[in-house]
Amino acid sequence: xxxxxxxxxxxxxxxxxxxxxxxxxxxxxxxxxxxxxxxxxxxxxxxxxxxxxxxxxxxxxxxxxxxxxxxxxxxxxxxxxxxxxxxxxxxxxxxxxxxxxxxxxxxxxxxxxxxxxxxxxxxxxxxxxxxxxxxxxxxxxxxxxxxxxxxxxxxxxxxxxxxxxxxxxxxxxxxxxxxxxxxxxxxxxxxxxxxxxxxxxxxxxxxxxxxxxx
Length: 214
Fold this sequence. Notes:
By secondary structure, the protein is mainly alpha-helical. The protein has 2 domains: 3-67, lambda repressor-like DNA-binding domains (434 Repressor (Amino-terminal Domain)); 102-213, no CATH class. 74% of the residues lie in helices and 0% in strands. The chain is built from 9 helices and no strands. The protein has helices at residues 3-15, 20-27, 31-38, 46-56, 60-64, 70-131, 144-158, 166-181, 193-213. The longest helix is centred in the middle third of the chain and has 62 residues, at 70-131. The relative contact order is 0.06. The mean pLDDT is 82.
């Protein structure tokens, strides 16, 4: 909206003895919206223009008449659109920067927790090997646990189910049951579920990403 029309809105409001708050109440808007109109920072939509014309008892032509030519009005519109796009780009860049910092922080936490899990796995392996020396050849399956935990953290960080290392989990289940119970069949059935897992969760991840970007 050009400054000429904005000034006219101010004059008509004052002529009708209304404050910005009172006008906003009549239109069902916030005072800030009215203030932006009168500072030429935004324009009323069609419905609000009709309401203003009726409220002030003037025609839309009288409300919106201006001495500006088409080129000047068009230039103002382009400048405002460019300014709006620039602000949106800055906001996107700011959000991206915040996401980057959040990811870096999460990666650091991920690295620390994974390191702790590996340390605990090593400590448990040594401890149980000392307590149950006959089992030391089987306890190596403990080292799958830190990998699985790290994969879960990666899923949380990326917010994608398909980031989970299901093949590692399947191998861990198969080897653990087989090593400790000597039941290798039908434990192998965990492996055919690998492609099924990704067939289910890849579309879910895609749907979540599309919904987030709307």
